[in-house]
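Input record (one chain):
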Amino acid sequence: MSLAIPTTSFTCDVVDGLAHIVLNQPDRGNPVDGVFCRELNLAIAELSEREDVRAVLISARGKLFSVGGDIAAFERQGDGLPVMIKNWTADLHAAMVRMTRMRAPVVAAVHGHVAGGSVSLMAAADLVVIGKSVRTASAFARIGFSPDTGSTMTLTARMGPARAKRFFLLGETLDATTAQSAGLVDLVVDDADVMAEAERIARELAAGPTEAYGGIKRLFLQAPHRSFESQLEDEAQTLAAISKTADAREGIKAFREKRTPNFQGR
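The corresponding structure, as predicted from the sequence alone:
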């Protein structure tokens, strides 16, 4: 099943609980532009409300995952660039917020090169699989820009504030091993295995206890901003609510019967 809205910058199909978003402007390096921002906002709004979506996989066609922002469009705007940036980020930032808060886990499969705002799109995924040859570039300072796309939050959550700040200030480009050591990505595999491994993980998540995943995501998202006491109480409240779900009952029953649980995402 496809999205209710047509898209040109990426494709998206939902099959057996897995929504697969594929960046689809390979000739342009899959840039972040106005059309992409608008379409991603509409797509994530829909996917986050669909009961049949239990995991999301993001990948790309072409030699590169994404070059980041559309530099040619920036140059064309001239003095109108600040207004364009506010228009683009209004859509893109809303999509990022909803993607990180949706109950379905998100997996990113990254190949080739990823730069600028697309690094944040990658980092916002719950699990990131990249190829050994991937280069991850902080392009903002190189062109005199500061980060957007939630970069200061998503990369800080993965790398810590000092390491993330260094990445942006020095305009670093990280190889796959360094990116993994820094916490920016989760798994590094052979280039030829990226899609297969990412899809394997995404399908495993799509067959899992979706409401529990949503609770886990929300608890970790808010943890850095809460007092210990508040977080403990929210853990208790979240667990109590999730314990009432059909999947929680199935999980307990399957454990007692020594079999694999059959989760339904509810």
